């Protein structure tokens, strides 16, 4: 299995550049092609000719072909995709955790871009940007009216080029310009700390190439600070996924040697795989186990995994493996339900095809596609409940989504009713001043689900959700 990972490149499971995916990059050519439908191909050629000759104005031939490929692939399911030069570059940046930019985590606040945190050591960090700084202009463009993605694109660019940011610092009540030189940034996908003596919090925001190494460093750092941990909270909320081998490694850090973490099944022989908690299933270099330095206590320390509707794909693999092996108590909300595998095959030096090739299954053989992981303990986002959770998109809401393969889906009328109620509450919430609409930061003492996770680890009373409903699939168990 380890050799297989080396041959195919890397395997990913999650959200990259805004697209939920589980991906295996393969550079080997297919050995044979199925017979081609000649009559339909003749029609395609005829349409191409008519558009080229009859359309009201000249068209770009390459764009026509690119659009035809995009339409063919996008009609399959929400996760299959044709990558042109630009989107292929963005995809690879997303999984590597590297990009060229200024190095800040951002969010939107009152139409402006807010600095959540400068990445340590980045150009923005060295320039003195601080959390809660507001960016009002990027070069000569006012930020108000730009989407978050548009703002990100304007701040990214080529290495060693400059960008001028206009900053409003609220606590000093002043506006000032900062010129920052872009450079390659390595994102931090792992955060963590000792919350209180005996209890630690480790957050994974995405599964990237550096996630496993960063996870090991963070765990070692935490155990040096407190060698006698009584419990750990592994926080996977809003983690859209990423690299599958990273998900297998994180699972293996907590599980006994050689137990099954996840399995995949599809038409191709290479899609029928079982990934286990052993180095050959996640190591990137022969003979090098990235988990070798972890403290032995990590295998037995009491563990809670926090998830929500934004936990997808690779994070669902980890949650499902730890839940099935009864290694952790999963708490929070039902997860996204992204349980399909996509394979990325280069079509040339800078384009590629991402196509769904398999479903993945938890160790018990359960498909979570279009369903998700159901927590052992349902916990709301706040003491007041989870008023807007019903509005979040899940896999089952996506057009043309793949079914679970284990029976028909049950479209719950209760969920539609909950959505209507959530929309009304959202309209009321929007009338409040921005400062009254702030969501507590993950990892803070105002983080309600985290406080409930700590209570669970301490054997204290947990405030269980009284309002959440589970999105069920009427399924038959998979026959093995």
TrEMBL record:
Output the CDD domains linked to this UniProt entry: cpPDZ_CPP-like (cd06782), Peptidase_S41_CPP (cd07560)
Q: What is this protein called?
A: S41 family peptidase
**Which Pfam families does this entry report, sorted A to Z?**
CtpB_N-like, PDZ_2, Peptidase_S41
Ranges of residues in domain PDZ = 88-170
The UniProt record lists the keyword ATP-binding: no
InterPro entries assigned to the protein according to its UniProt record, in alphabetical order: ClpP/crotonase-like_dom_sf, CtpA/B_N, PDZ, PDZ_sf, Peptidase_S41A, Tail-specific_protease
Which keywords does this chain's UniProt record carry? Hydrolase, Protease, Serine protease
Note down the stretches annotated as region Disordered.
400-447
Organism in which the protein naturally occurs: Variovorax robiniae
Entry similarity comment: Belongs to the peptidase S41A family.
